[in-house]
Amino acid sequence: MSEENPSRRFSDAALPHLDAAFNLARWISRNDHDAQDIVQDAFLRAFRAFGTFRGGNAKPWLLAIVRNTSYTWLSRHRRAELEVAYDDDIHGGEDSASGNGDVGNPEALLARAEDARIVNEVLAEMPVGYREVIVLRDLEELSYKEIAQVAGLPIGTVMSRLARGRKLFATRFTTRRDGGHDGLR
Known about the structure:
Helix content is 69%, strand content 0%. By secondary structure, the chain is mostly helical. It has two domains: 76 residues, Rna Polymerase Sigma Factor, Chain: A (Orthogonal Bundle); 82 residues, Arc Repressor Mutant, subunit A (Orthogonal Bundle), CATH 1.10.10. Helix 2 crosses helix 3. The chain is globular, with a radius of gyration of 17 Å. About 8% of the residues have low confidence.
């Protein structure tokens, strides 16, 4: 039996995850056109590095490349977005999201058409570090371990960012939905 063509193996492993790659790049860059450029560059990088892929689930491996490519793109084009840190005084404290049911879960809210616009606005305006873990967990359904792999972070940091990101999301979503001003504009 002959060895399968490397281009074919790459296509079989990577192309099923093209939508997830675009989704991650779009949420990090907050722009469809930029995301297309990022994904194209990331897939080229992934193809060149395909010899380092050791099999298994290609999605975390590929999304790690997309994430890194996205951050490289941001550092070149919008460096200020990378310098936003989480601050309880600015982004909301520990108690800010209590009693809001599924408000901290973007996937559940996207299913409700009347809230979709607000979900997209709030998620797009969040600091990139929180935005990416929410997208990877709640929209792409990666495990904490896979997110840690993609983001190059310890699992504890992933869990912490996800918890804080969900609280921030819930606070901003509730404020925006209820017609209040949340300081984002």
